[in-house]
Amino acid sequence: MNAFRFSTAPLDTASLQREMRDVTCGGFAAFEGWVRNHNEGLAVTRLEYEAFAELAEKEGARIVQEAIARFGVTRAGCVHRIGSLALGEVAVWVGVSAAHRDEAFRACRYIIDEVKHRVPIWKKEHYENGDSGWVNCERCAAPAAHHEEYAAPAAHERDYAAPVNYLHEHAHAHDHDHDHDHEIPSVAAPDYSRQIALREVGPEGQARLRAASVLVVGAGGLGVPVLQYLAGAGVGRIGIVDADRLEPSNLHRQTWYALADCGLEKSTLAAERVRALNPEVRVEPHALHLDANNADRLAAGHDLILDCSDNFATKFLLNDLALRTRKPVLFASVYQYEGQLQVVRGDEATACLRCVWPEATRDGLVGNCAEAGVLGPVPGVFGSLQALEALKLLLGLPGLEPGEMLIFDLVSLNTQRLRARRTPDCDAHRRAGQSAATLSPLELEVQFGSLAEAQAAGFTFVDVRDSRERADDPLPSLALCLPMSKLLTDAAMLDTGGRYLLICATGKRSAAAADLLRSQGFRECRSLRGGIKGLKASA
Ligand SMILES: [Zn+2]
Prior knowledge:
- With 539 residues, the protein is an alpha/beta fold.
- It has 3 domains: 4-150, Aldehyde Oxidoreductase, domain 3; 193-434, NAD(P)-binding Rossmann-like Domain (Rossmann fold), CATH 3.40.50; 447-538, 3-Layer(aba) Sandwich (Oxidized Rhodanese, domain 1), CATH 3.40.250.10.
- The chain has 19 helices and 22 strands.
- The longest helix is centred in the N-terminal third of the chain and has 19 residues, at 53-71.
- Mean pLDDT is 83; it is low at 136-185.
- Zinc ion binds at residues 351-352, 354-355, 426, 428-429.
């Protein structure tokens, strides 16, 4: 069972447990909520539960799926009684099977807590003195219509507007710390819980987004959804480059802005909107045209660049910047009802924009939105896809590969995913190759005061010492182990675009190793100057 359901019949917990059985699991956790005989000083004789079934089942199923995804458990299920229940009966049952006990416990706890807060179920208590009353949480349970239908008058008459509480330890209501945690606080703070709930995000992914810095070039039709979703997701720093001022003809596709904003700089307007959406984001507007003189300065310090421009000149500039700096650039382009996405990582092996579009392609040959016309949602779709790919890239999730193109025709709704060909005589690639050859040997080595500092700079550690040295003096941080003797044979496990910091005892072997790897195309690999001894000396 991976589900949420209601039962009008008493629950057979033994058979529910059998449903959850899975020989791949090492642990099973269950929770049973029982009907107890008193509440707030009144003696309870029996209970009734009612649910707004359609809504409740959907929400319950969502909670179970969230628990499975969030805690990586194998099976989870929840059954809730409705109808009339006697004292001692099981009102709600949650069962979770998992490889390990910890996930099982946590997923079980998550399901019961979330069901309590989110599923619209009402409880009517019958008391020994002949009275009865609906017990409900008017803050969380349901839309007003359901209150009218089921519960509201009785609840208010008796002033029993307390949360539904199935817990065996029936300490009622308002002393529970989680009774209020779903209320909107008066000064709202960003809440990323709905994306942290994804196993692929989690607290670690959220920290990665917070540490990330993205430059968005263009705050128009593509840039608007990109900026909305990146700011919403909590990307820590966002640069916005746009020299244009808002015009009334922009608004059908740039629906973040207002008619009253026309004539104002889009970079400033977009930055204001980002701040209003998420004050945690450090936003830097630049009311400039990106050009050959300012591109490197604007890109400095950003991990990822998003091209949301509508002209080839900007796209080619960013393409060349990707090849020169090895910073990934995620391109999106829209033409009438069609558009495409492409990632250029600037490596030797995969296609860049100039590999795909030879020199002949220039602005004026292909129309932009002003000349060719566009329906508002078209850039909206591509900007949303671009934001999604950007978040996946920052989170390390699979997606569009370097050199790949996604072409999406929004009339036929056909998509194509193509691997663009790396043209051997591509000018941009040749120029980047030449500048790489002139890299100063000093840049091979880099000095840090501590490994934490190096980690914060985004390096993955590669320990090139042999196994005995590693055992005698282990690194305090996680590192890939690639002893000198196996450097070339095992280098395949590294990503040629990865940011590696090679480490040995004194920095001599790691420098030689980094030099060797550089010659094999690992352009971002560096050596820790002074090695581990150097760190200890400076600590
Ligand atoms: Zn190229």
